[in-house]
């Protein structure tokens, strides 16, 4: 579990997060949704430590993360997997080398052990016979699957995904969603996804948090969304659904 308590964040005179508290549950896909500029990416960065909150606390299970020194935070980050928007694979490395990168950085494995772990992770995301390819030789969906393999290479307790379906077609997006959910449940990971994709919300949103203008405006499950009387949430869901349908009609 990851617990966020009373997180606030300012940039100069502008407050972008307002006293947010959330419990992100282990073994579930926890989704943060909201329109662009709502503060959801800033919240994700504060949780993982890429930004320091101005107020509030973050706990990784029983560890008070934001009061740790550099070495303490590094130990926690060894248990964190990151799936960045666009995949963020290294173009100058092969598929195999990309997945091996965090093992080289943070583990004490032998080369043989790293090779075995890389092959296990690639097989888990159904990437085969592609070890020596570069990311540019892969489709967008395959790049995301390689990025997931890299994210789980260290067998993380926590997985952060920033817009994992960005740039993907609907069919591939569903495959990526299902893969993330399977890995989350299989390895009992605390997974947090930042997304504005309502398909993802309805597909895997066991827990959903809606951020509106830097505030936690709603919290529940994907099933609860259909019964919500939250005006801002309903506007967001309706607008997102209409936009997706219009884009599909143009293709």
Task: Write up what this structure looks like.
- The chain has 251 residues and is an alpha/beta fold.
- The chain has two domains: 24-50 and 62-79 and 158-251, P-loop containing nucleotide triphosphate hydrolases (Rossmann fold); 89-155, no CATH class.
- The chain is built from nine helices and ten strands.
- It has helices at residues 40-48, 70-77, 95-106, 111-124, 140-151, 170-186, 198-204, 222-225, 231-250; strands spanning 2-11, 14-24, 29-33, 55-60, 63-64, 80-83, 158-162, 190-194, 207-212, 215-220.
- The strands form two sheets. Strands 6-7-8-3-9-10 form a six-stranded mixed β-sheet. A four-stranded antiparallel β-sheet has the order 2-1-4-5, covered by helices on one side.
- Strand 9 and strand 10 form a beta hairpin.
- The longest helix is centred in the C-terminal third of the chain and has 20 residues, at 231-250.
- The model is unreliable at 242-251 (pLDDT under 50).
Gist?
This protein is of the alpha/beta class and 251 residues long.
Write the layout of secondary structure elements.
Elements: E1 2-11, E2 14-24, E3 29-33, H1 40-48, E4 55-60, E5 63-64, H2 70-77, E6 80-83, H3 95-106, H4 111-124, H5 140-151, E7 158-162, H6 170-186, E8 190-194, H7 198-204, E9 207-212, E10 215-220, H8 222-225, H9 231-250
Helix pairs in contact: 3-4, 3-5, 4-5, 5-6, 6-7
């Amino acid at each position: 579990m990851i617990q966020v308590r009373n997180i606030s964040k300012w940039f100069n005179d502008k407050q972008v997060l307002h006293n947010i508290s959330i419990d992100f549950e282990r073994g579930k896909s926890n989704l943060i949704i909201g329109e662009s500029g709502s503060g959801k990416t800033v919240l994700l960065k504060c949780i993982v430590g890429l930004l320091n909150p101005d107020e509030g606390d973050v706990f990784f299970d029983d560890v008070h993360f934001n009061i740790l020194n550099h070495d303490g935070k590094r130990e926690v980050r060894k248990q964190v997997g990151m799936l960045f928007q666009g995949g963020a694979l290294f173009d100058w490395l092969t598929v195999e080398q990309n997945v091996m990168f965090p093992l080289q950085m943070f583990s004490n494995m032998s080369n043989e052990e790293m090779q075995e772990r890389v092959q296990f992770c690639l097989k888990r995301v159904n990437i085969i016979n592609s070890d020596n390819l570069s990311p540019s030789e892969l489709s967008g969906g395959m790049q995301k699957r390689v990025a997931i393999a890299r994210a789980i290479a260290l067998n993380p307790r926590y997985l952060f995904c920033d817009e994992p379906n960005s740039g993907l077609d609907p069919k591939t997006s569903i495959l990526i969603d299902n893969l993330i959910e399977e890995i989350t449940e299989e390895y009992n990971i605390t997974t947090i996804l930042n997304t504005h994709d309502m398909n993802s919300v309805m597909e895997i949103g066991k827990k959903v948090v809606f951020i509106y203008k830097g505030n936690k405006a709603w919290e529940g499950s994907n099933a609860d969304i259909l019964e919500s009387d939250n005006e801002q949430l309903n506007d967001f869901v309706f607008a997102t659904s209409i936009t997706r349908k219009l884009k599909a009609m143009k293709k």
